[in-house]
Amino acid sequence: MTPLLVALCVVLLDQATKEWVRGAFSLHESVPVIPGFFHLTYIRNTGAAWGMFSGQNVALSVLALVMLAALVVFRRKILPPGRVHRVVLGLLCGGIAGNLFDRLRLDYVVDFLDFFVRGSHFPAFNVADSAICVGVGIYVLGTLLAKSPETALPAGEKPPETPAP
To answer: What's the Cα-to-Cα distance from 141 to each of 86, 131, 134, 137, 146, rounded to whole Å?
Structure first.
């Protein structure tokens, strides 16, 4: 139930913010929130991250559907059990679904979170993109920080020996 609730929250927040941007801003309009660091800028992205594969909406929609199906079908093989990984699954599915709804409904993805770091411009993104990145980040950190069975043993205790074949 956790993945479904997280995914639903991500999709609702993503779509609500995108609708607000589409209604409140003209295309390419930019409003500084923290001048020189963070702006709200209405962008239409017909590609993937950073505008790669621009104009490939059908292929990117099919890829999103395949990834959603793979995450759901293979979730037990991809993600170990635990609450954190259920949240990760929800973040990933919600983020993918949020951008997929845009592609199917609008033929582009609405991006609007626009950052500048040390004078360099970071490509605009949205809530769905953020959910995907946070989900992947948590998954990677969890994988890197996971204790192997040997390191999980109390000090001085050895793992059980497996019989020779």
So the answer is: 15, 15, 10, 6, 8
Q: Which pLDDT does position 82 carry in this prediction?
A: 82
Give catalytic status of residue 111 as yes or no: yes
Report the distance separating Cα 7 and Cα 10, nearest Å.
5
Residue 103 binned pLDDT confidence (cut-offs 50, 70, 90):
very high
| Rounded average pLDDT over 70-98 | 90
- pTM (two decimals): 0.83
Contacts of 159 (CB under 8 A, 6+ apart): 149, 150, 153
To the query of whether residue 129 is one of the catalytic residues in this protein, the response is yes
Q: d(Cα 28, Cα 30) in Å, to the nearest integer?
A: 6
d(CA 121, CA 99): 22
Catalytic residue among 14, 102, 114, 129: 129
Q: How many residues does the chain have?
A: 165
Asked if 65 contacts 71 with a C-beta cutoff of 8 angstroms, the reply is no
pLDDT at 159 over 90: no
What is the sign, positive or negative, of the torsion defined by CA atoms of 9, 14, 17, 20? negative
User: Which of 14, 102, 111, 114 does the annotation list as catalytic?
Assistant: 111
Q: Nearest to residue 96, comparing CAs of 27, 32, 11, 37? A: 11
